[in-house]
Design brief:
Blueprint lengths: L1 H93 L5 H9 L1 H7 L2 H5 L1 H21 L7 H39 L5 H39 L3 E5 L8 H4 L5 E3 H5 L9 H4 L8 E4 L1
Antiparallel strand pairs: 1-2, 1-3
């Protein structure tokens, strides 16, 4: 009897525990299903996020191409004004029939001729290109960093000053071009060895337009990165994705960074070897890459 009671006692707990263990197994199965459902939902959200990022990035690339086209069109209009005005102004000097004094007077009026031909109107287009870029930066920042970017009055004043400064640099480049042209021609007049004015003007002008395109492209991209980094700092955003093309003309500096994420401290420590601050100029002159805030 004692042995039977002992055996029954041993069976009792097992019989009672069996349903409990079965219930635990069901709970664990349900928990596993829920965990999988959450994981699937997160995966779907990540896919959707990546899709939205892809759309945003493609839109940003399209806007960048549009901005490049704006700059090219700006340079073409500037070239037309320069070409038409300077050729007309230099035509009489090129005949060699003017006295030295008359030639000097004609050359001194080159800048005024450019203004009369509409140089000021063309240069006035440049701030509008910058303002369009600023609008694109604000939209892209808000989309990628998931934080609304707004410019206060101080931001706007500083950025407008920067735009004015960059526009003045282009104006200065045109003025320097006119001065170089005038100096070379006047020396030729005085020595009686007048150069081929058409060829001279064409060579110097092609160089000027190329330099202006580089200056505007570089300045505009630096302006865009300045807005991005300044507002990222204000909003506590510290990580950035290095985005842009990776093709046959991409610098090694950029190739080593495209597609990677960097902190602001890492970015500030970069040296692009171009003598320009890498945080705002990245690879250097004409760099096509951007820092996308995360």
């Amino acid at each position: 009897d004692i042995l039977a009671e002992m055996k029954q006692a041993e069976k009792g707990p097992e019989a009672q525990d069996a349903p409990r263990f079965a219930n635990n197994a069901e709970v664990k199965m349900e928990e596993a299903k829920m965990a999988q459902a959450v994981a699937d939902l997160k995966a779907e959200q990540e896919i959707e996020t990546q899709r939205q990022v892809g759309i945003s990035e493609r839109r940003r690339e399209a806007l960048a191409r549009a901005r490049e086209a704006q700059i090219t069109a700006f340079a073409a209009r500037l070239e037309r004004v320069l070409s038409q005005s300077l050729k007309a102004s230099l035509a009489e000097v090129g005949t060699g029939k003017l006295s030295n004094l008359e030639a000097a007077a004609a050359l001194s009026g080159l800048q005024a001729s450019l203004e009369a031909a509409g140089l000021g109107d063309v240069l006035a287009e440049l701030p509008d290109i910058y303002l369009d870029e600023m609008d694109d930066v604000i939209t892209a920042f808000s989309s990628s960093a998931k934080k609304k970017l707004a410019l206060n009055s101080v931001d706007q004043d500083v950025l407008e000053t920067l735009i004015t400064f960059d526009a003045a640099q282009v104006n200065g480049m045109v003025a320097a071009h006119v001065d170089d042209l005038r100096s070379i021609i006047l020396r030729g007049v005085l020595t009686g060895q007048l150069p081929d004015l058409s060829a001279l003007e064409g060579t110097l002008q092609s160089r000027l337009i190329s330099n202006i395109e580089t200056e505007v492209n570089t300045g505009l991209q630096a302006f865009s990165r300045t807005v991005t980094l300044t507002k990222a700092n204000d909003l506590g955003v510290d990580k950035f994705l290095y985005v842009g093309p990776d093709d046959e003309i991409t610098r090694p500096f950029c190739q080593a960074r495209v597609g990677q994420i960097f902190t602001r401290a890492e970015i500030d420590a970069w040296d692009n070897g171009q003598g320009l601050p890498a945080a705002t100029y990245l690879g250097g002159y004409n760099c096509r890459h951007r820092l996308r805030p995360l």
